[in-house]
Specification:
The chain crosses the membrane at residues 30-50, 62-84, 104-122, 134-155, 187-208, 228-245, 265-292. Keywords: Membrane, Transmembrane, Transmembrane helix. This is G-protein coupled receptors family 2 profile 2 domain-containing protein. By secondary structure, this protein is mostly helical. The protein has one domain (2-293): Rhopdopsin 7-helix transmembrane proteins, CATH 1.20.1070.10. Helix content is 71%, strand content 5%. The protein has 14 helices and 2 strands; from the N terminus they run αααααααββααααααα. Strands 1-2 form a two-stranded antiparallel ribbon. A hairpin with a 5-residue loop joins strand 1 and strand 2 (171-178). Helix 3 runs parallel beside helix 12 (280-297), helix 5 packs antiparallel against helix 7 (135-155) and helix 10 packs antiparallel against helix 12 (280-297). The longest helix has 34 residues, at 90-123. The radius of gyration is 22 Å and the shape is globular.
């Protein structure tokens, strides 16, 4: 232990790369990590395909959802590429960590922005129309903000190899993330703030959505506003659990990458499930998207959606009328 604490992080990381698959625990973790990332990417891509193949991608709620999901996909793809490379990419790990966290932060900003737009729509149609006029410019700025915000962390060497412990107490570098004290000011605080206001605006929207029900063209989305609250709640719960379980594992200034005592087997299973399963909250978000919007998109079966089956032609006239109404409803003009 004392010898490890005297070594720089780069040397410990290189030792990990030299003995990357020397235990069954590492191999199983590697395989499960690939599976979880693949499932999360697939479910996110399904959301994009559904919107792309519909006649509704030009409407603002789905433009925001597309931006959010694309940011999530960039984060997931970088994590997948890093994992496929056996988590041994010393020179690229810092830049990968930077872009992963920038896109993750961008996805949360887009989620907050969607909650904010509904809030603005309820309070002021003038401000809502002003936002719609410059929507693309605003979206571009929102995407670039986290990249500029986290650039200081990158330049200060705040991103690097991270991960979690194995059963035998060895640290397994399987991730690129924050590795110093900057995690508080540049991650915990901004992420907590984004979740707080997303939930706050969503609660307000749930309470006051009825102010829109007298506007005929807004009838359907007004009802859906109540469901938007589920997304920040689910994402916040997943982030909070992941943060708490890995809080002790992320600060390299405390030599937390050095070997620890062997874990209790049952706690280790719990520990691994929470670490490996974190990205699955995006899959849960995709399933929520299906159930909230399935009527609007004419989808009936979750299995058909997952398997990319095309919906049958020849819908009843009543169904077509409902879809026409839904198309008008989602415009929110």
């Amino acid at each position: 232990m004392a010898e490890c604490e005297a070594q720089p992080l780069e040397d410990i990381y290189q030792e990990h790369c030299d003995h990357n698959f020397d235990s069954a625990d590492k191999i199983v973790t590697f395989i499960l990590r690939l599976i979880v990332l693949a499932i999360s990417i697939y479910s996110s891509v399904l959301v994009l395909l559904i919107i792309k193949n519909s006649q509704k991608k030009q409407f603002w709620p789905f433009k925001l959802i597309i931006c959010q999901v694309l940011s999530e996909c960039v984060d997931l793809l970088l994590a997948l590429i890093f994992t496929i490379n056996s988590s041994c990419w010393p020179k690229a790990c810092k830049i990968i960590g930077y872009f992963m966290h920038s896109n993750w932060l961008a996805s949360l900003i887009f989620m907050l922005f969607q909650c904010l737009i509904y809030f603005v729509l309820i309070r002021s149609e003038f401000l809502f129309n002003l936002i719609m006029k410059y929507l693309y410019i605003i979206l571009a700025i929102l995407y670039l903000i986290p990249h500029g915000f986290l650039l200081r962390v990158l330049l200060d060497g705040g991103f690097g190899p991270s991960g979690w412990y194995l059963l035998n107490g060895e640290f397994n570098f399987i991730f690129c993330g924050f590795i110093n004290h900057q995690i508080v000011g540049f991650w915990i605080v901004p992420v907590s703030t984004l979740f707080f206001f997303s939930i706050l605006f969503s609660v307000f929207n749930c309470i006051y959505w009825h102010r829109l029900q007298n506007k005929k063209e807004l009838r359907y989305p007004a009802l859906r506003i109540q469901s938007i609250l589920l997304f920040p709640l689910v994402y916040f719960l997943a982030w909070l659990i992941n943060f708490l379980i890995r809080l002790h594992d992320t600060d390299s200034s405390e030599q937390n990458y050095c070997p620890q005592d062997k874990m209790n087997f049952f706690f280790y299973i719990f520990y691994q499930v929470l670490n490996l399963g974190f990205e699955l909250h995006l899959t849960l978000g995709a399933i929520l998207f299906f159930y909230i919007y399935k009527g609007l998109f004419g989808m009936t079966s979750l299995c058909d959606w997952i398997c990319l089956r095309k919906r049958k032609q020849g819908k009843q006239k009543k169904k077509l009328i409902y879809q026409d109404q839904s198309i008008q409803a989602i415009q929110l003009k």
